[in-house]
Amino acid sequence: MPRKNVRPYTLYPRIYVYLYGELVLKNVMISYIYLRKNVVFIWKELF
Questions:
Q1: Rounded Cα–Cα distance for residues 13 and 3 (Å)
Q2: Between vectors from CA 40 to CA 42 and to CA 28, what angle results, nearest 5°?
Q3: What is the mean pLDDT of the segment spanning 34-45?
Q4: pLDDT tens-digit profile of 21-34?
Q5: DSSP SS3 for 14
Q6: CB count in 10 Å sphere of residue 16
Q7: CA distances (Å), 15 to each of 11, 20, 28, 37, 46, in order?
Q8: Burial of 31 by CB count in 10 Å (0-12 exposed, 13-18 middle, 19+ buried)?
Q9: Torsion angle of the four alpha carbons 21, 23, 29, 31, in this order, in degrees rounded to the nearest 10
């Protein structure tokens, strides 16, 4: 009986962490690419 109660508690946070981590990673990648483009643009403008 206790195993069935424990299972969802260990399963759900893992799914949430995975989904949240994926979202954060996507946002970081997008912002990084955007920032890099801006930095290159600013660099070209300056020099």
A1: 16
A2: 110
A3: 82
A4: 899 989 888 888 88
A5: helix
A6: 10
A7: 7, 8, 20, 33, 46
A8: exposed
A9: -120
Specify the residue for token string 């970081």. Answer: 28
Q: What angle do CA 38, 40, 43 make, to 5 degrees?
A: 105
- Token pair, residue 15, equals 């799914």
User: Maximum CA pair distance of the chain?
Assistant: 70
Residue 10, helix vs strand vs coil: helix
State how far the Cα of 13 lies from the Cα of 32, in Å rounded to an integer: 27
Tokens encoding 28 = 């970081």
